[in-house]
Amino acid sequence: MMEKHVVVIYPHPDDESFGAAGTIINYREQGVPVTYLCGTLGEMGRNMGAPPFANRETLSKIRKKELVDACSELDVDLRMLGYRDKTLEFEDRRGVAELLKGILEEIRPSLVITHYPDYAVHPDHDAMGAAAIEAVRMMDPKSRPTVWAQAISNDHLEELGRPDIVNDVRPFFDKKMNAILCHKSQASGILGQFQENWATDDMKEAAKKQLGKEAFYIWHFRE
Prior knowledge:
By secondary structure, the chain is an alpha/beta fold. Helix content is 43%, strand content 15%.
């Protein structure tokens, strides 16, 4: 069944491109609207180049432009939530959930994509995923969207079992890479390698193996 509207909720610029760009592109090519709710501007990111291309005062502006460019590449609506990078775990969970709930009730999506709490490696990932799921839980059960939660920790398969959804996004791989390449500041090493060797079939296949599938668990609410 075709989705009505998809909302992606992650904390950082580049989470959408590395984590779900292929899935997003697939929906957009079907004509399904997609909105990205991005929690922070990733201003505490550690990669500022060698020699440095940014400092703590300028990195947020750079990452904001990269985020806008990536969302333009993906053809999605972007809403920046304005939280500070690396502080989401200290925000009032209920308050974040209430903010998200209000936006979700406005947009009325049929599907929400977010991180799986406790299996998403970064504290901001876990906190934003938990708040997103809480936001959906607080909604009227009759109008709740489906939630796909993305687990990326090394132990998630052992702990959670096989994902419910595994999207083969290789048909959209070039477009996914274009979105990823918008986030040059935080992935310059591996992305530079991809760019330099883009004409090499072996490099394409290695990249597709790493990034060619996007997996999610369906979140089941008890009430």
